[in-house]
């Protein structure tokens, strides 16, 4: 009596593995992308004021107009792109709902969607559920980034291709794209008339250079997906947004209204305050994440791990010890049981992730220090 496609789709593997190891006593979790900060006080006060003002009725399906105006203004200031608040911006229930509504709105059964891997574990099942076909591209040989040469080759080998789902900074590797690299990918997407779904939820957390958005290079073919979960430590508030050409966004807005009706008023009041008066909040968080990243890199390198330095987000993607081969699940289970440190096996992120584990340095610094000491002791015993 159920949906056959859904029945054949495995549950979200990140959450499943996190739950599997959660029973380990005194486990320090570096598993989930959960910012280790409180929501800034001025944002919470805006939410409280919203409640006192009885702001508790149905909002416009696409989001309250002042919030959409603030999002459009922010995108103009950051990337120099012009979006009309009415018709080209939608406030969503987190970036996940923005992505889901976009895929359901824009894909048809049989359409092919390129997904660079390792990548966020929800992309492949969401694309599959629409009846479209994921085309996973292993980026491991290219330092975990998608090159324009490989993109063109994959398009030619799988023609016709409808869309590219590009996430950067990348979850799980922390890799991202410089302006020239992004322009080169955009040129290929333009040549082959690809729709680009750009998941840039970690765009405020780029360390060594400013974040360049795909909308700067290819606004006419790009739907930008972002939100406040990572930038303002608001994961539980479920505030995301999308922006793009009116012809695409109006269809997505229709699907969005079918899925959730509208976003709750109090969260929108908090989001408006975050965007209008909270631009310094991500700067403070980013500085702390960079400190934690460096602390973790130093400790893991001393323990014998190999990894690329993340340029954004708050994850490290580390090669597991040689004696485990590519069995990252086995290593992650042993690490949880013997060292009492929780990490995510790299293979849940698709081809190219085998033999790696993802560690989140969004955790509290004290927990990170305990986890690093335990991993070093574990590795010393292994050796």
Automatic annotation (TrEMBL):
Its cofactor is pyridoxal 5'-phosphate. GO terms for biological process: amino acid metabolic process. Keywords: Aminotransferase, Pyridoxal phosphate, Transferase. The keyword Transferase applies. It holds the Pfam family Aminotran_1_2. The keyword Protein biosynthesis does not apply. CDD domains: AAT_like. GO terms for molecular function: pyridoxal phosphate binding; transaminase activity. Residues 26-375 form the Aminotransferase class I/classII large domain. InterPro entries: Aminotransferase_I/II_large, AspAT/PAT-like, NHTrfase_class1_PyrdxlP-BS, PyrdxlP-dep_Trfase, PyrdxlP-dep_Trfase_major, PyrdxlP-dep_Trfase_small. Its EC number is 2.6.1.-. Belongs to the class-I pyridoxal-phosphate-dependent aminotransferase family. This is Aminotransferase. It comes from Limosilactobacillus ingluviei.
